[in-house]
TrEMBL record:
Protein known as: Protein DETOXIFICATION
GO MF annotation list: antiporter activity; xenobiotic transmembrane transporter activity
Topology class, membrane: Multi-pass membrane protein
Stretch list, region Disordered: 1-22
Keyword Metal-binding part of the UniProt annotation: no
Organism: Panicum hallii var. hallii
Family under the similarity heading: Belongs to the multi antimicrobial extrusion (MATE) (TC 2.A.66.1) family.
PANTHER family: MULTIDRUG RESISTANCE PROTEIN
Keyword Membrane: yes
GO biological processes: xenobiotic detoxification by transmembrane export across the plasma membrane
Subcellular locations according to the entry: Membrane
Amino acid sequence: MSSAAPLLGSRPADDGHQQERRRRCPSWLGRVVDTEEACAQLRFSGPMILMNMFYYGIPLVSVMFSGHLGDVELAGATLGNSWVTVTGYAFVIGLSGGLETLCGQAYGARLYRRLGLYLQSSLIMSAAASALVSVLWVFTEPVLLLLRQEPRVSRAAAGFVRAQIPGLFAFASLQCLLRYLQMQSVVLPLVAFSAASFALHVALAYLLVGVLGLGIAGASAAVSVTFWAACLMLLAYVLRSEVFNETWKGFSVEAFRYVLPTVKLAAPSAVMVCFEYWAFELLVLVAGLLPNSTVSTSLIAICTSTETIAYMITYGFSAAVSTRVSNEIGAGNVDKAKNAVSVTMKLSVLLAISFVLFLAFCHNLWASLYSGSAVIVSEFAAIAPLLIVSIVLDSAQGVLSGVSRGCGWQHLAALTNLVAFYLIGMPLAIFFAFKLKFYTKGLWAGLICGLVCQACSLLVITVRTKWSKIAETMQQEKASYGGLA
């Protein structure tokens, strides 16, 4: 990586090929969206979407293998997977979000050495956070029993969770490495590594469960082994590749100086992510209190799963805009940062429209993939219009959350999520569901109210952001860094 390493979507001097591409592009499309910026973001977001899906599929494969062991094992693995997600994985994913600000702006400002220091400080912080979470995971069974979960299912879930304690440390480190690479626009290798990890996991799960007969503990242990393999593969890539000669100068005690600045951004980033994860999980729990809870819980679970799948695609655009904004702010290119936000919002609208069309015409087919019950398929058709609205709003807020990580105002986004989901969304969901007796539609309508508040608040913050002030602060920091850059 030379000192002239290009930023994602940076625009070199025009050549004949670029002019030819512009001539081929319809004139109306050029007026609607900056096509060069859009193409750059699509090239970035596509690999990020694939990578996210591969890593997301790893624990799901273990749940599927557990399901073939019996109903109790399936329930235990499902409950355990939900527990590790909301108490651990979501938390460390959020912690790594601080690197999107720090590494992204440092890379744009050409403070390349700082990227390696920020990565090391984040690894230290993530290891400490993982140690704290692992203590909670050790006591999973008594906690689940306290939450009035069925004893046999709680025992199975506890076994599933405990086997993933080693994997939590690997997953936390993996997320830090992914952000370090993402902010340098290194994305294609991430797809290859994630695909290899997924393939390895399928083989491991089959070996431990199907061949060695280790049961639900074996299915979960396969997750830990896979995450460690994925983490070590990425670490070896960073250490051995010449591409990172300028951003990785080796391990240094100087990294401890950057732990506090990392924590200051990582903590609100983790809170921001967890507040949203927890809101969706809480919705499933509340659905269990409705009349005909079996149908209600299944319906909300299908909606939540659909929303998650849709968000995985939004995540690609969120990662793209976070990288673009932080890189351009670090480089002092305020106008390019604003343009990146505008283009990503337009792309998210196109994405939302595609989901609207899919659910409008294929909702029965989609529901039948989850359940063969005619009642659930019929109820899903009735709630599909609300689900469409929530996906549109979630697409918008996902992009705006990426902007927040790129700019470094995770604390504002965390406060927004607290108010939107827990002071507006959940109270209204309970009111609509129980008081007005709208039941599952009421729960999802309350969630939509929270998403409206969240998206509108983030939009106002983005519009009122003093971009030039953020860029000036970064340039002052660059000047103070001096020769160490």
